[in-house]
Amino acid sequence: MAFNVIKPGLLALVQDLGRHGHQSIGLTTGGPMDEVAFRWGNALLDNDCNCPEIEITFGMLTLEAQADTSIAITGADLAATLNDKSITPWQTYAIKKGDVLAFQQPIWGLRAYLAVKGGFHCEPTLGSVATVVREKIGGLTGNGDKLQKGDVLAYQAYHDHEKRSVPRLAIPNYGNREIPVILGYQYQSFSSLERANFFSSDYKVSSNSDRMGYRLEGQEIHSNLKGIISEGIAYGAIQIPKDGQPIVLLQDRQTIGGYPKIGCVTRIGGSILAQQKPGDVIQFTPITVDQAEQERHLQMARLTQWR
Amino acid sequence: MSSKDFPNIEMVSNQSCLLTFSQVISEPTSNYIAQVTQHLVQLAGIVDLVPSYTTLLVVFDDDHYDRFAIFKTIRQTIEAIDPNDFSVKDQREVVIPVYYGKEVAPDIDDVANHCKLSVDEVIKRHHETTYRAYAIGFTPGFAFLGNTPDELHTPRKTTPRLKVPTGSVALAENQTAVYPSVTPGGWQIIGRTPVNLIDWGSKNLALIAMGDSVRFEPISRDEFLVQGGLLDGF
């Protein structure tokens, strides 16, 4: 039982929470760009939190159901339709055999998540199905391929649909473009003036942004350091190369690097950032590790309580 | 490093912290990092470890540890390591066969000219040195090997190649490496190995781990081909 891929869209990828434990050999993690939306997708269907979902970037994807099931759509509003009737994200929908599910183009945000009851069936590579196109790993084939026309997204048929939706207050606001940053790494090598510039300027998302990193254009900032000895790059690290334009390193980032870094975007902040399109404008705002921990616990508690 | 100084620990996000062991690259520091990595990898709630030249990034499960708990765990783990013991468990010596023929070594003449050596002397110095894997990264299985002998130090190419063939053996400044897969790259290419540096089906996945010692062994064109080497172009 499965969805048949009628139109593969721009970039639709099988993802789970990522391939962890192999960064020591240089293998990146992959995983959902918007982890908050991904987690809600599985929560809505009472799935295990790591069940494979489809990350749909931009849209243009059409699927046809071969069996009954329940799905959840979270994340961006990509003008989805079910048998030509508009449907909105952040809730579950009953799917009948023969139904056609289509995603058009972004209305709000950039990446939507499609979860299915029980998760999509997909053979893991190194413990994960997360697709990393650059490293040719994960996904339906195991070779890092994005979804292709004719692909078969297998699931277990399910008939006891339950209508559920995410509480309004828990839905992230992709229009809130203040991205929280924990100062760290080489932040002391940026003078107080450089830091003030960084936190008070608008940055535009460059068209060169992808799952590896979001490149930003705006006020240049400069470190006193020319380079550093290459070191491990944490999720969300903000690297400042020679041209002074920040790059936020996300799910498919390289594991080590030698540019100075001013700090790290939190996972919740990174989830919002990943919903911004080229040309969108964001700002950075400093937070403490303590605040980041609290925000994370609150988010996880909301998910757990709601289940 | 004469004694083992306790690393500086800094939170870099709410899910990762960076341990800085030294400001300078050295073999004892690298051994120390390899040792700490081997101990931490066994603990529950440690999600990922990224050892490098002088640092170790520890990624942890924030349902398992808050920032106080992770500091405490790391401190206790390091304190339990014998301060006089610099040995690294299971440190391997990896021997990599290399065909240094010009058809797979487009930059070897440039390196020879830059270093004022003959091509044979470049090859001899490159394979007579035992290297250490200081860090793995850039692409899966890419090991940064140091140090090349002073006479071989050559800067990176001014324009990186868009496509470096798999198995290419290259050098830049005081480092040498093998490209595990086709990628862009700016290092000077002086040979090619027929062996796979990365194999998702194998136990270790990557042929070289951080902390390993690595040697290159010259082989003939015939041996290169018999061992499965490919002569695809640039």
UniProtKB/TrEMBL annotation, chain A:
* One Pfam family hit: CT_A_B
Q: Does the keyword Nucleotide-binding apply?
A: yes
Please list the coiled coil stretches.
Answer: none
Classification via SMART domains? AHS2
Molecular function (Gene Ontology), one example: ATP binding
Segments forming domain Carboxyltransferase: 24-303
Q: Which domain of life is it from?
A: Bacteria
Q: Which UniProt keywords apply?
A: ATP-binding, Hydrolase, Nucleotide-binding
Tell me the PANTHER family matching this sequence.
5-OXOPROLINASE SUBUNIT C (PTHR43309), CARBOXYLTRANSFERASE DOMAIN-CONTAINING PROTEIN (PTHR43309:SF4)
Instruction: Report what the protein is called.
Output: Biotin-dependent carboxylase-like uncharacterized protein
Source organism of this protein record? Marinomonas rhizomae
Organism ancestry:
Bacteria, Pseudomonadati, Pseudomonadota, Gammaproteobacteria, Oceanospirillales
From TrEMBL, chain B:
Q: Where is the Carboxyltransferase domain?
A: 7-208
The protein's matches in Pfam families, at most eight in alphabetical order, are given as:
CT_C_D
* NCBIfam families, sorted: 5-oxoprolinase subunit PxpB (TIGR00370)
- Would you say which domain of life the source belongs to? Bacteria
Q: Which InterPro entries match?
A: CT_C_D, Cyclophilin-like_dom_sf, PxpB
Entry-linked Gene3D superfamilies: 3.30.1360.40, Cyclophilin-like (2.40.100.10)
UniProt keyword terms in alphabetical order? ATP-binding, Hydrolase, Nucleotide-binding
Give the GO molecular function terms: ATP binding; hydrolase activity
What protein name does the entry list? Answer: KipI family sensor histidine kinase inhibitor
The residues the entry assigns to the signal sequence are none
- Indicate the segments annotated as coiled coil, or none if absent: none
